[in-house]
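The record is given unchanged here:
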Amino acid sequence: MKHTHERRLALEFSWPDPPLNVALVEPEIPPNTGTIARLCAATGSRLHLIGQLGFQLTDGHLRRAGLDYWDSVDLSRHTTFGDFQTAMPDKRCFYFSTRATVPYTAVSYRPGDVLIFGSESRGLSGEILEGREAQTLGIPMQVDHVRSLNLATAVAIVLYEALRNINNKAAHE
């Protein structure tokens, strides 16, 4: 079933080619992953689900959050993080963590980049982040008030910043 809502204004935008990649390592909450899937459909980004999921891909909450956009999601499933790395050998990767010292806005993103996020309760493991400090980015927040952002919110912030960054460079070429 296709969504019946029609957008009244088509906004001009230079979508990256190749598209950006969003990777979720062991996501746990179905509505977050469904929302991120819908975000990937809206931006033409590829979605990679890595490792043990906290739900089945047939979960009703996951499906409802993604609405009827699942057919538009370029989805890849990877059993382990190693399998994911093997599938993406030449891709430039950025890892997002509350432990990062570099803000997500400090990067000049490129088409095809991979944006990697950890699970809702644990984030990315130290094993994944080890030796990748320069590629580990964070979203500034007032840590006296909250320890982290919702996963879907974090992905949306970073993904649209990467798209804005790429689009601005394309406009000036």
Summary: The chain is about 30% helix and 15% strand. The radius of gyration is 16 Å.
